[in-house]
Prior knowledge:
Helices cover 15% and strands 19% of the residues.
Amino acid sequence: MKTPVTIAPEALDFSRLIRSGETVGWAEATAEPVFLTRLLDAQAERCPPFRVFFALTFSDALGADHPNVTVTALGGASAGRRFFAGRGDNVIPANISDISGLVSSGRLPIDLVLLQVSGPDATGRYNAGLGIEHLHAAIGRARLVIAQVKPELPWTHGDTAIEPTCRPPHRRSSCRRGWRGGSTASSPTTSPA
């Protein structure tokens, strides 16, 4: 695992991070990292062709009019409806409980993960707050993880911690990777997977 890097939001350049044909994924609903998805939207035209996956979105942060972006989702509900007007060819016919298995098996690849986290706590762990769902599997397989450190995000208990010292035995591990300190409020942190 390479050393995580903390960068200022204005230095985050998705056109240098996204490779042609890759999939960018993030948490759904209220856990969507809206700051990062708005930044992705603003830079999408400069990026090579790429795909986006989300299970459900309540946000309109990512526009539906980028010709180089293919959106795949669990369903076309809520604000995601705009991506599938008149068609449903990129809707995944699965239950939300199936998504983690599809991601961990590689059938639904996510190459870049965007998420928001709080922390670190006294042990150096970060917390994904309200939504981690399929992201544990995605973090373990992703080439790059970009996290927005958001101190006001509630620290939740359960399976939402992201361990900072996890070193998977091989690339396809479902290890819950995280980052070591140095992050500041609203600064994205990238971690090569």
